Amino acid sequence: MQRGLKVYKEVCAACHGLSYIAFRNLADPGGPGYSPAQAAAFAAEYKIKDGPNDQGEMFERPGRPADYFPSPFPNEQAARAANGGALPPDLSLITKARSYERGFPMFVIDFFTQFQEQGPNYVDAILQGFEEKPPAGVTIPEGSYYNKYFPGHAIKMPKPLNDGQVTFDDGSPTTVPQYAKDVTTFLMWTAEPHMEARKALGLQVFVFLILLTVLLYFTKKKVWASAH
Amino acid sequence: MSGPSDYQPSHPALKWIERRLPIMGLVHSSFVAYPTPRNLNYWWTFGAILSMMLAVQVLTGVVLAMHYTPHADMAFKSVESIVRDVNYGWLLRNMHASGASMFFLAVYIHMFRGLYYGSFKEPREILWILGVIIYLLMMATGFMGYALPWGQMSFWGATVITNLFSAIPYFGESIVTLLWGGYSVGNPTLSRFFSLHYLLPFVIAGVVVLHVWALHVAGQNNPAGVEPKTEKDTVAFTPYATIKDLFGTCCFLILFAWFIFYMPNYLMEADNYIPANPGVTPPHIVPEWYYLPFYAMLRSIPNKLAGVVVMFSSILILAFLPWLDTAKTKSSKYRPLAKQFFWMFVVVGVLLGYLGAQPPEGIYVIAGRILTLCYFAYFLIVLPLLSRIEKPRPIPNSIADDVLAKTGSKATPMVSTVIALVVAGALFAGSAQNARAEEQEAPPS
Question: Do the chains contact at B261 and A205, CB–CB below 8 Å?
């Protein structure tokens, strides 16, 4: 997840905001696993607009853990103007906000196997699905790019990832599939920071409930023994 | 419960209270000593499950409302901050959202039970109609609740459904403007939906009290459809029904927990994680699954007003059921023809639900029209006809006879329990796996 954060910071943050994540979240359990001091140091690299001060002016100051990731553009119109009329979506929830149909009977089986990776699969595929030239006979509008997996195939985002673009401290391969996987993992965390806590608690609840059900079943049988 | 109870507490302090407000006597006669038929099966536990779900929704909803901001600019963010920053906020939100789906699942099973066993027949007509009223209130509450997170699907679903009221001649447009509090769905709409969403569950609770009262006057129906005649036919509610309901509720909770902890977004639309944007319409506007059959019926009719009328009639027709199905035999166990048509009706309902989620094109439209016809035909043609022409099988003399005849088949309850435990085990085994995005899988282009 730290690799994913690096990819986000060096590549994606140029156009995409992450406004639901605060710097302090980077030190939360189940996340990228930074210590509070590291999260504070990370925050301090950013300049956050604050104010007004006593003179009524806005000023800039270094980031604090309580601050949220700043968005690259001040408002929607500026973002559209810089990106050919398209608005780069905020990425905090993107892996929950995108999906695709799995069709019948997969959606029944998915319920039991807990398959809920449609969102991350979508993001991962888009990042790797760019192609230089559209296939023969397909035209896309001026200013857009051909992507195999984007619905309609014409996406306004230029190919964001290239091999060797980001170097990782832990020596992981610097390939596009690796970047796509890491940043998607990171974005799944930003979409749902408490997922691991949720599933851990879920296991405890399940064990308790199954035990309780078994006990209640035998109690019920005992109570009703005379009535049958 | 008819007349004052003969409950006398022994402790002097309790006697003091009882003389001034006989509430303990009321609880005792309604839920402890209350005679309940001894042959009830597990389909009868859903009443208790529903009461529990109402309590769960109210409690989680009240706490959520402490952190939620009902303003169009802040609603989405407030929900996200509940999920991220409020202690166990994610748990509350998942319980409330999954709880709504479980509430509707339980209510549909409860209603189908009533249909199958003839629980709507004399003398339980008012009980049934109160149930239909509760169902309508639930649908309104659920609709408004879904709008509150102010995601894309919340906004556009609210727009589509509130627009339906414009089909009413003369007053339609004014009604819609009143609903919206403006000229389109916006902040005033959100505020009033929040206010009503908080109010209606308490109205539901009130109608539930009437519903249980009506039930206790007539007594419960039972799988044999034969009214209790002697003391041998019934058992005291506590401990028999209490423990059975507890067991059934626990099984239901396992399914509920599966949704809350492992598959919270299974029934949610991905589009609802995008903040509402009046300028961008999602490609498919779909309501939550429990509205899908009615949505399918609405879209099957080409005319707007006719579609709205058909959709509302499909629910209101339930209120007339006691007068449409006048067969003397209550339980479909002894009505072989009615039983087959009942299951066909269930299939029609499920198929309509499936169609509601599909785009209204091609074969789906034709199928929708045929199935809508089948739906209404069941109530307006099949049931009245069967009441006249069907020859039912002989019903048992009394409940006691029914129970004694069944003590031979001890294996049957075991089978359903085994099935239930297998499903629970399958869910548990699924939960033990690691959730991993598949490396090679790519979405269809």
Answer: yes
Pick from B223, B279, B215, B162: which is nearest to B399 by CA? B223
Could you give the maximum distance between any two Cα atoms of chain B, in Å? 77
Q: Do B303 and B263 reside in the same domain of the chain?
A: no
Contact B101, B290 (CB under 8 A): yes
Task: Sort A137 into a burial class: Cβ within 10 Å, 0-12 / 13-18 / 19+.
Answer: exposed
Contact A209 B265 (CB under 8 A): no
Percent of residues, chain A, with pLDDT higher than 90: 8
pLDDT in tens, A51-85: 788 888 888 888 888 888 888 888 888 888 888 77
Least confident of A141-155, A190-204, B45-59, B259-273: A141-155
Whether B434 shows a pLDDT value over 50: the answer reads no
- Regarding whether B311 and B203 lie in a shared domain, the answer is no
The count of C-alpha atoms lying within 13 angstroms of the C-alpha of A40, restricted to the half-sphere facing its C-beta, is 3
User: Which residues of B are less than 8 Å from A184 in CB distance?
Assistant: 437
What's the whole-number mean pLDDT along residues B318-339? 89
Residue numbers of the domain that contains B347? 299-391
Which tokens belong to B177?
A: 């403007």
Contact state of A114 with B250 under an 8 Å Cβ cutoff: no
Number of domains in chain B: 2
Q: Is A156 touching B (CB cutoff 8 A)?
A: no
Instruction: Say if A223 is an interface residue toward chain B (CB within 8 Å).
Output: yes
CA distance A116 to B426: 17
* Phi, psi torsion values for A147, nearest 5 degrees: -130, 130
Q: Is residue B20 part of a domain?
A: no
**B4 domain residue, yes or no:** no
- Note whether residue B97 is domain-resident: yes
Give residue B432's pLDDT.
Answer: 55
B428 touching chain A per CB within 8 A: yes
Facing A114 at nearest CB: one of B262, B444, B445: B262
B432 within domain boundaries: no
Query: What tokens does B301 get?
Result: 């009719």
* Whole-number average pLDDT of chain B: 86
Q: How far apart (Å, rounded) are the C-alpha atoms in residues B329 and B393?
A: 9
Decide which of A103 and B159 is more confident. Answer: B159
Is there a cis peptide before residue A52, judged by omega within 30 degrees of 0? yes
On the CB side of A62, how many CA atoms lie within 13 Å of its CA? Answer: 7
Let me know whether B318 and B259 are in one domain.
Answer: no
Claim: this prediction has a pTM higher than 0.90: no
Residues B171 and B231 in one domain: yes
- For residue A65, which phi and psi values (nearest 5 degrees)? -55, -30
Residue in the structure block whose two tokens are 């009437």: B210
d(CA A23, CA B265): 26
Residue B52's pLDDT band (cuts 50, 70, 90): very high
The span from the CA of B362 to the CA of B359, in Å, is 9
Measure B365 CA to nearest chain A CA, in Å: 19
Q: Measured between alpha carbons, how far is residue B89 from residues A20, A125, B80, B270 in Å?
A: 15, 32, 9, 20
Backbone φ and ψ of B194, nearest 5° = -65, -45
Q: Which residues of B touch A199 (CB under 8 A)?
A: 261-262, 431, 435
